[in-house]
Amino acid sequence: MANVMKNYLKYNLIFTAREIKHFFIDSHNIAQLDQNHTKKIYVMATPTHGNLGDQAIAFAQNKFIQENFRDYSYIEVPYDDVIRNVNYIKKNMNKDDIIFIPGGGNMGDMYYWEERVRRYIIRSFKHNLIISFPQTISFSATYTGKHELKKTIRIYKNNHHLLIVARETKSYESMKKIFGAEKVRLTPDIVLSLNERKESVRAGILLCFRSDEEQFVKKDLKANLMKMLQSKGETIKKTDTVVNRRVTAKVRPTELNRIWNQFRSSEVVLTDRLHGMIFCAITGTPCIVFKNANHKIEYSYKNWLETVPFIRFVDVHQLTDIKDLERIIDDLRHLDREQRICPDFTKQFSPLIESINKAKVE
To answer: What is the pTM of this model?
Structure first.
């Protein structure tokens, strides 16, 4: 308990120091704010890190807004620039302007900084509509998790113009219970609104496994899997949805197309990353997806992709023989073109669009 409290206090002190530092930095001159006579949509706290799943979310959010809210100017405020720009934005904000907060899997205490910044935005803007794009909620049962959840509940409930979107049903039920049903909607992950299918020559097996605190597939299973593939003479390629470099909005499409091309050029992908599975879905790439450390993959699969023939979910706890994976790989690589087409999820986002349009006139 002493170590938990020590880390918790350290995180709070560091964040407070960051806030103070940013308040003494001059606000960036956001060029779009000169358009005072137009309605504006601010997408705040977009990523600049190398998680390409988060970058794909930012890319899909932009496209979703541009296609469905064309009478608004689009303004993106990167995560690193939120605190220093809040006061400047508030001074230039009109009553019809809307704020969007990125979706993902960081509503919880595992990715502490993201939740703190999200709460800061929700606390700072009380008079404009705020939409939190599709999220997974996952607060731990630790002292820190329980304490941070209480803070989140208090701040979220105190904003009466906040609409939260869950991306799978387990989060949806939790969010309704925690925040109230009137504040919550359900849609797929926003990346499933994309269609990135392109015909290309496919060869080999692509492995896309995580190695961070969310990993669930053990090293011995990965090693046995590699041995099995090598014994079959398979061409094995490796990638990850995280790159070790800064990714800005300018280079985001290039980075995403690079990894999507890796998926498009593979016969089958094996992954334990949610956006590894989703990248397969939007590129029409056969996929075996493994359960991860929380519920986001399992429920996203069950809710949206269970009937898609070229995506198979595997719970490693129920895997009794590595040869079962060999049989699934063989099945997937022999699917014809018509069996590798993902459903159109456009209609699944209609309730969100309708809710936003309704909230705009209230």
So the answer is: 0.90
